[in-house]
Records
---
Amino acid sequence: MGLVAWVAQNTSLVFCFFANISFDGAAFRLLFSRTRASKSYCHFAGLLLNSGAGTSFLRKGNQTFHVEERLKDVCRLGISDLSSLIARGGLSAVQAAETAIERAQSNQTELNAFVSIDEKGALARAEALDSLGVDARAGMKLFGVPIAVKDNICVKGGRTTCGSQMLQRFVSPFDATVVRNLTDAGAVIIGKTNLDEFAMGSSTETSCFGPTRNPHDTSRSCGGSSGGSAAAVASFCAPCALGTDTGGSIRQPASFCGVLGLKPTYGLVSRYGLVAFAPSFDQIGPITRDVKDAALLLSVLAGHDPLDATSVDRPVEEYSRLLDDDVAEIKVGVIGEHIEAEGLTPAVKSTMNDALKALQDIGASISQVSLPSLEYAVAIYYVLGTAETSSNMLRYDGVRYGHRASGFSDLADMYRKTRGEGFSREVKRRIILGTFVLSMGYYDAYYERAQRARTLVMRDFDIAFEGVDVLVGPTSPQQAFMIGEKVDDPLLMYLSDIFTIPANLAGLPAVSLPFGKDADGLPIGVQLIGKPFDEARMLRLANALMKRNCSS
Amino acid sequence: MVLQPVIGIEVHVQLLTESKVFCSCSTQFGAEPNSNTCPVCLGLPGVLPVLNKKVVELAVKAALALNCEITRRSQFARKNYFYPDLTKGFQITQFDLPIATNGYIDVDVSENGGEAKTKRIRINRLHIEEDSGKSLHGEALNVEGTSLIDFNRCGVPLVEIVTEPDIESPEQARQYLLKLKTIMQYCGISDCNMEEGSLRCDANISLRNEDGSLGTRCEIKNLNSFRFAKRAIEYEMRRQAEVLEAGEKVKQATYGFNAATGKTFMMRTKEESQDYRYFPEPDLVFLEVDDDRIEATRKMMPELPDAKRERLTKQYRIPKYDAMVLSTSQEIADYFEKCASLHPNGKAVSNWVMGSVLGLLKERNIGIADCPVSPTRLAELLNLVADGKISGKIAKDVFEQIVETGKSPEAIVSEQNLGTVSDESAIADIIREVADKRPDLVAKLQSGKLNVLGFFVGQVMKRTKGQADPQIVNQIIRKVLLKE
């Protein structure tokens, strides 16, 4: 019995509890529909993104510029420059927060990067930081740095919506561990960023708050699911943001928006307080504008957390310390399956060629490697990922918190209506798929096989890493697609994560670097994948590569 | 036609931990509803479970006590289903790789008053899981149409212990449960308080077909006392036999048991049973238990009931039955041993503990820890009897008085002058008085009819208010009246 027949047989879908989907015979259309609703989108004028070097004025001294002038450029500063400027008193934390918030607010209509902007909370926090003495400021790596946090990460007291109607008014009573790490380091959370509903999507279009637009071309998708975070950083609302990456959700939007997105090794950063999508894949990571900032932020986020059993107990590294060391001894493997994949756009191809040339220029040794099992990566991911999803979404039943439908006849009816109303199609689609692959009689054929195939992917990576230190390839087969282009075509949408998913399957660290642009100015990212917990080396190579790219 | 029942039992035992299995909330029973909760056990978005180390320790202990093989690398799994008192929509349990397998318990069962035989009941598996919350519905709240949920119990650690279908009678089932409870209590694994739900029992019952093959089984859920378990199994056996005798087939189903009517009632059929879609819990890592940890736990194990019974039999020279009764609880065995260390006659101690002491506890419905007669006091009392200072009959009275006053036996005896009358001349005087009144019986006695001896002993005992030692009285009667 295939999926269609299974869904037909389980018409009441007692395991899923939805009301407003009709399953009579047309279930397959629901799951793999290729029909596309014709939608027209307004084209906003692209934001003017000056590439003004924000650090240059600093060298001229703090006293040289008027405050107003300085504030204009504050948004362009990197984390360490900004935090040292504030810590030294060159700028107050309140001024930094105000500037970031103002920018976030003014961009909101065009971009819709934020689900909520916490002006009051951020300013109060900034004021408290400003009142700290010099000694107290000393250890704080992110002193006064405004940061945006993806809205599937719990921040105490504010809404954590996951972009879903189900949690539209949900207020978390606790901070995620990463949020505590950030605030302990002196960061100021300015707001929560938009995302695909429960992070399920690659375009930020499945959010109940509407899509986030790409700052480089607002008719285009910012990618997803951490699209709000990528757009916020790309549009200079904040120097950095937190994203989450289950199958590429940090790296793909980073690539689309021309920023840097880092997915750490599974277990390096605590998941406590991250609303689970697929727990064996999920990782929180930084989205920044350069490698230095990503390294700095990672050293704040990383660390063992007794509240997360999958978090690894190992000393935290200072990732930014050795960034500028020589990279000549780093052996780079080019993933043959990715670089020669069908469907790469010419611009992505030429960007990859540039990247390989830059790698040669900086003295890295390059060889091509093959990971045959990557062919199955997307299939494995959508079996295992949806299985975990179907289970994680069970708690949203209207009993204790979140949306509850009104007007139900009994408990089962309450479940059906609540879940029918609270979840959008994409989430339901994944719940149905996941429920199917875990069902009696299908578990072995789908879940169990996918689990075994996942170990094959891990093995292929192990073999590849015997000969090389870092793998390289494109982040995405294409530049940012149009909003509405793929949202009704799940398979096509799922394939946009084809190059990012393997790192999640194997739990490896991976980073997408903004490396090029196409003729229309749309950014293109290059992906590096490192060995487990070898972020330092991967970031060192990334740094050299980006520097080379800027200077060429 | 009597068909052989085939019974398997699943028991959920609540582990004696301070905190819950995946968070640090208290497990205290009877707290204000929903006061022992936190984001983790409430399953709020973003939370993760972290395994309580004490749970593992107690589960390993339970596994060793039940002679199980311990899985070196066991795994947690999610059991997915919707229920309002299940906060996450899944229960974290163990499925493919439970922490322990292949154990057994030996129970002694005497069927229909026959001699007790040892029966080995194999244990299929033991696994760790979390409890769910508790729904309270309208009637219980005096609010019609309302249901409230108390999540205090949600996340309380349990081990589930599943037998093979080795149990052949309701009485074996009851004995298995009693033994299991004793073992759990011995090891401090659980208090097994059934009223508070810390031991819960489900039974699977089928009747073996005439050709020896297994019949269709039915499950009876939530048997909350051992007596009910036995009655429910008896009822279910009869029900299934009646179905078969009527030429029909037993349908696989889950039943509940109504203690008021003594009948089982159908809850759901096999067709209605849920697909729980078990899969490995991705938020928890493999549970590794290495040899060092097993050995360390083994060293902490107390003497188990079977071993204790053997030792008590040998060390104190008491019958096997006495040793079994005394070892049903560690505290009772400790009481016995403490007393037996102060009094040399083990059998006398076991008689007193099994009779007077356990009788008193039952009468007052108290535990042995609250027994008003300490083992030291009991030993003092038995020593007085052994030394001939008081008679056995007086000893019973003195025991009662210790219970009432808490005074030492010596004090009671001396204050009330209860000591044995051992003054031969005084007893001889009494004998003469009695003899004067009944010359007829004296004549009978002297003519060799020794059966009247008892009359004289009785009279003397009566006049000395039981303080004389009957054996000594007997000797003096023979001396005075028979000139022996």
---
Amino acid sequence: MTRGARLAEWVVLYALSVAVALALASVIVEATGGDWWPVVEALVDGSIMAPGRWGGTLGIAAPLLLVALGTVISSKAGLINIGQEGQLLIGAAVAVYFSFLIGGPGPLNVVVLLLFGALGGAAWASISGLLRYWRGVPEVLSTLLLVFVALQAVGYGLKWQWLLLADEASRGNRNLVSEQLAKDNRIPRPDVFGNEFPITVYVALALALAVAYVLARTVWGFRLRMLGHNPRAAQRAGVSSTTYGATALAIGGAFAGLAGAAMFAGGGFSFGNYRLVPGFSDNIGWTGLLVALLARERALPAVVAAFVFAGLRNGAGFVNSTGVQSRITDVVQGLLVLALLVPPAVVFLRDRRRARAAATERV
Amino acid sequence: MLIDFFSAVGDVLSSESTYINGALFAALLAFAATGEWVAERSGTLNISVEGMLLSGAFAGILGYHISDSIVVGLVFGVIGGLLIAAVQAEMSHRLTADQFVVGLTLNILVFGLVGFLDREIEPQALRASEVEVPVLVDIPLFGKALFGEPWPFYLLYGLVPLSWWLVYRTRWGLELRAAGENPQSADVSGIDVNRRRRQSIYYAGFTSGLGGAYFLFARIAAFDDSVIGGQGFIAIAAVIFGGWTLWGTMAGCVLFAGALSFQLSLQGLGYELNTELLQALPYLVTIGAMAIFAKRVRPPAALARPFIRGLK
């Protein structure tokens, strides 16, 4: 098959499966007496078209991308880390704790905050690394279980003033909130064409390029991929699975923790308004994992996927005004992800069948 | 103060309602964990069990809403669970999509969908009637919890031994375990690995759907989207805690449900325990158990590893 035909086939397949997903969603809305088209318009308006909205979408896309980049690194080493939600939350909590403990002038405090966010996430992920390489506990299980421990641990921290809870003067009648981050300690959100988003967006994009480069073009990245493809061969070639695996897990956690800290210090109204609150992570960790897996564990496609997911999430805010509940966006998002999984699988299976047919013919 | 506390603990431990509550949660976990155990033995870490429970619960109440019959409700619950299982199984073990993407997405999808439909339809149901097993129900403390339950509870007494028999005493079960331990060898000896895995996911959908519906009819008979509230993940923890044996899994269910019920009863008496610690307990205990027994208890060797012929 020529290159052009192949590309056309991909486009058709994707268009078809996305169309089916949207059709299913429309059936659900129409069957319950709603109108579908206004929902679509609201989603598009709320994510990019309406004034100031694409900035908000970018602000959500940045932490998603950061989480996804970490996931790309750990899965390149053949590890299945599904605990980003917990790593992100712990990262945010550690960042908050040390940011208020250390203080310091504005920009310096931002650096401290991000640094401790990454450290916190890395430490949490390293528990799984330790369990895996010391006790042989599969990382897929421990990362998953630690998510729920992290949720409770941060909930506990928010109950005590010596940990995360704000003092009474600043929290008013609210319970379970941290101190609000002072104005000059926040990540700047400059205005671009009437859209406001934190500069972490640029950082996340730069990191995406860096991750893609490191994995594809450096010795370290090569060894990591070798470990993922064939652990035994890697071991023979002198790649220690313990060192490289544990490092990859820790880096994955660091990215998630960094995302958490960035959400806290630059997320604005999308994420707790510069306070740590219960449920702060708000599924960004889970969604970031989806972004990475949907991008088939590659850094640059993850940029696109992160933007799409962020758009859906941001657009959801506009759906309620159409009279259809905004819960429908969860449905749309779920159906879209499932639809996007179909074309690669179909092509993969068909290519294999063809190859097998060709092989038997030759014999 | 401390004496008061211990007498409260004594009250809780000697009150029937603690055990009845515990049995309610334990049964929900057991329904889900039985199916999850079968799925994991065949090599799938079936994360969508949470979605299966929720889907079963909503479909169950929908069935009752339509027909005013609990039996129909339970059948609907099973169908609800099977629908989710169908997507999970066909996408991850026929179309070779990543099982975690499918599972996580399904959880989000089901959560959104039932929340959406619930507010559109607002179905109502009744509690199932209680059936008491004579004599046994008079056992002090936990007699009522085990033998005086709403009738769908007793399905569990058939389902768990049946699952054990299927997995350990039939050819199907042997092939299923082979698919979970060494798919390459299983494939060479003529077993359709992905087919066995799909079937085991369907089985998980069946038990979880039933469990979700049971929970509604046994407890509240009203639906909201937080009714399952992460119990599916506790069921996964129970399977891991049980070291991938059925009896260990059941022990995990009882332990975790007991802890939950204990905490709720103590709260009812006005004692605030460290709720976060208790909520995290199932996961902490499971992680601890894995770390301690990791050398003796090991998961199915191919757990969470997809099988594609010719690829490792």
